[in-house]
Amino acid sequence: MWAKNKIDSRINKDYLRVVKEVFLFIKIELIKLFKIKKFSKNNSSNDILIVNPCLIGEAMASIPAIRSFIKKQGSVDIIVSPAQKQIFKKIIGVRNVYTAKSNYQRKTKNNFIEDNQIILKKYDKIIILRINKNSYQIIKNIEAKEIQTPLKHFILYGIHLCKSALFEKIPKQWKNFNFELLNAKDKEEVDFDEIFKFDKQDIKKINELKELKVNQRIILLHLLSHWPMKNWKTKNWIKLLKKIKNHYPNSRLIFIGDLDNRKIVDIIKSQLNFNVYSLVGKTNLKDLLLIIRKSDYFIGVDSGPANMAYLTKTKSITLLGLEPYMYLPNNTGLVIGRSKKRGLLQVLFLEKNNLVNEIEVEEVFDCFNGLVKESIIVDDFLPKYFSIIIPAHNEEKIIGETLMHLKNLNYPKNKYEVVIVENGSTDKTYEISKSFESKNFKVVHSNQKGVSMARNLGIKNISKESQWVIFLDADTLLKPKFLNKLNEYLNTHPWVTYGTTTITPSSNTLKHKLLHTILINGGDFLFKYLHRIHIVNRDHLNRVKYNEKIISTEDLLFSKDLARDGGKYFFLRTSDVVSSTRRWDKKGYIKPYLLSCYHAFLGIFNKNKLKKQKWKVIR
Question: Are 247 and 369 in contact (CB under 8 A)?
Fold first, then answer.
C-alpha cells in the first residue's frame, strides 16, 4: 500500500485521463454504427452541437476555431466545463451553453447537464472536440443524424506532439489543430470584438473595479498552476517583482487566479516593501477575460490565463518547463521555456526538480523590459536582423554558388546582410565576390591570411542594426527558408545566445551521411561545439573574439569562450544547411578527425604548442 501511494503521488493522473478519451471516441464510433436514429427529411433541425468539456487553456485556444466555424455554418449549441459557461455564452453565434465535468475532473462544482431539454433535442450533427465519461453519458442519448469524433486526428496529433518534444521542435499549435477538427478557415489574427459580444453591464463592472481605476501600468500576475511541476519558485517571483517595481515604479502589480493562489500571494506580499494588489478568488472567468483585456501586461505559469491573454492580445510572458509547447502566442507574447527532452516526462511525472525553475529571474525581467520597450515580439513576421560573415581565401570554385544561395534567401532583404572577407587570395575570389555587391552585400579585402582574423574583421564591418551574427564557411550553402526557421527558433527560445545547426553533407552517399551524423553533428551536439556555421548573439561579440594566433580548432576555443561569457548553447535541427565534403573526399574522415581531436586536446592543455601546428588548406 505504501509503495502504491508513493507511486500515485508522483504520477500526473490528469494527463493519463487523456488516454480514456480515445476509448470513448471508439465507443462513440460504435454508437454511430448501431444506435444513431436517422431523422426524416421533414424533421431535420439543421442544429449543431459542439462538445468541448476541457481545461481553461485548451478551451480558450479552441475559441477562434469555434467562432470561425459559426461564421461559416451558423449558430451552434455547445457543451463545456462549468467554469467556462459564462465565457462561451458571450461568443457570437453560440445559442445554448450546457455543462459537463472537465475531462480532467478537477475539484469544482459538480455540474452535470443543467437543462433536460438537451437530452430530448434532436441535432443534425454533433461535433466532438473533447470527451469524458460525463459528457459521453449526455450525448449517447441524443438523437442526431451524424456524430463526428476526432479519433484519427487525436491519435496522430498525440504522436506529433511526442515527436516534436523529443526532437525539440515547435509542434502544431492546439489552436490550429482545432481549426482542422472543425474544418474551419484558419485566420491567424481574429479581433476580440469579432468573437465576443459583452453587455454594457459586463464592461461597467470591470471599469468600476478599484484595483483597475488607476493611471498606472497594470501588470497581472498568475503564480500557481494546479500541476506543481509548472510552478516557479516563490523566491524567484519576489526577486522579479522587486526588480520590476524598481525599474518601473509607476506600475501596479495585481495577482489573479483562484483561491489556491491565496497562500503564495500572502507569502510574497509579506516579503515586499511596496503595495501589491490581489483579485485572487474574486472573479469568474468571464470577468477575468475582460480584466486581462483592460490590463497592459500578463506574466504567468499556466496555459489557462496565458491563452486568455493571447485572445485579448495583451502583451504577455508565459513561463514553461514542460513539453509540448502547444500554446504559443501569435504576436503579443513571449514564452520562456525549458525542456531538454525531459519536459515531456514531467507532463506525466510530478518531479520535484521542475525544469521551469531553471528559468532565471534576469531572463524574465529582460523579456519584460523588452515588451515594455515594444522591442520583443514573438512573430515570424517581425524578423531579427542577421549579419552573415564569410571568410574567403582562394574560394573561386565555390564562392559564387554560396553567395547566390544567400542572395536567394526567402527573408526580408532589409533584415539581413552578407559580409565577405576576402583575405590574401591569389585566384578570382575577390572579383567574384565583388560582382555580388549590393545594398546588403559587402566585400572587405585584407592581405592578412587566417580564418580567425577574417571573422574578427567581419565583426568590425557589420551593421549597427545587427542582432545575430552567423559565421559561415565559404563552402556551406543555406537553403531559401533557413533564416525564417532560425528566426522562429530564436523567437521561441529567447534564452539561447549561441549555437549551431545540423550539417547536411553535399554528397548524398550513405558513407557521408552516416559519418556526418556521428562525427560532425553528433560531436557538436554532445560537446556544445560550433562547426561550419556559428550563430552568435551580437552582445557576446563585444567581449569574445576568435583567437588569431592559432590556425586550427579556433571554433572549439571560441565555443568555450562563449560559454565562459555566460552563453546559452542551442543546436538547431534542420536540413537547410548543406556543406561541401571536399576535405573528406580528399583526405578521408579518420585522419582529419583524429588530427582535429589532437588539436582540440592541445587547445585545452597546451595552447603554445597548438600555435606551432600547421593545417593544410583544402580547395
Answer: yes
**Length in residues, the chain:** 619
Q: How far apart are CA 549 and CA 531, in angstroms?
A: 19
Positions of the chain with pLDDT under 70: 1-17, 34-46, 103-120, 168, 186-189, 321-324, 329-333, 336-354, 373-382, 511-512, 516, 518-519, 551-552, 583-619
State the pLDDT at residue 353: 60
DSSP string, 244-309: HHHH-TTEEEEE-S-GGGHHHHHHHHHT-SS--EE-TTS--HHHHHHHHHHSSEEEES-HHHHHHH
pLDDT at 385: 94
- The predicted structure's pLDDT at residue 46: 67
Per domain, the residue ranges of the chain are 12-195, 202-372, 386-611
Q: Determine the Cα–Cα distance for residues 500 and 360; give it in Å rounded to an integer.
A: 23
What architecture is domain 202-372?
A: 3-Layer(aba) Sandwich (3.40)
* 51 neighbors 123 (Cβ within 8 angstroms): no
Amino acid identity at 39 = F
> From residue 595, how far is each of 245, 559, 615 by CA, in Å?
55, 19, 9
544/535 Cα distance (integer angstroms): 13
The answer to whether the beta carbons of residues 216 and 250 sit under 8 Å apart is: yes
C-alpha cell at 325: 509547447
The per-residue pLDDT for 332 is 59
Query: 419: which strand partners?
Result: 389, 442
Domain 12-195 listed as CATH 3.40.50.2000:
yes
Which H or E run contains 362?
helix 361-372
CATH number for the segment(s) 386-611: 3.90.550.10
Distance CA 53, CA 133 (A): 10
Task: Give the Cα separation of 498 and 490 in Å (integer).
Answer: 10
Single-letter residue type at 411: Y
pLDDT digits (tens, 9 = 90+) for 280-323: 999 999 999 999 999 999 999 888 898 999 899 899 998 876 65
Contacts 24+ apart (CB under 8 A), 406-412: 406/441, 406/478, 407/436, 407/441, 408/480, 409/478, 409/480, 409/482, 409/483, 410/480, 410/481, 410/483, 410/484, 411/383, 411/386, 411/483, 411/484, 411/487, 412/383
**Residue 208 grid coordinates:** 468600476
Q: What is the pLDDT of residues 167-196, one digit of tens each?
A: 767 788 888 999 999 988 765 567 898 999
Adjacent-strand bridge partners of 148: 127
* Beta carbons within 10 angstroms of residue 35's beta carbon: 12
Displacement of CA 13 from its chain's centroid (Å): 25
User: Comparing 12-195 with 202-372, is the CATH topology the same?
Assistant: yes
Q: Of 193, 181, 222, 196, which is closest to residue 62 (Cα–Cα)? A: 181
What would the grid cell of residue 414 be? 532589409
C-alpha cell of residue 572: 538547431
Joined together, the cell numbers standing for residue 48 give: 449543431
Cis-peptide into 324, omega within 30 deg:
yes
**Model pLDDT for residues 59-98, shown as the tens digit of each residue:** 999 999 999 999 989 999 999 999 999 999 999 999 999 9
What pLDDT does 531 receive?
A: 77
Rounded CA Rg of the chain: 28
Contact 408, 478 (CB under 8 A): no
Residue 533 CA to residue 386 CA, distance in Å, equals 13
CA quadruple 319, 325, 326, 329: dihedral positive or negative?
Answer: positive
Q: DSSP assignment of 586-597, as one string?
A: HH-SHHHHHHHH
- The Cα-based distances of 165 to 57, 168, 281, 539 in angstroms read 19, 5, 34, 29
Please report, as a single letter, which amino acid is at residue 469.
V
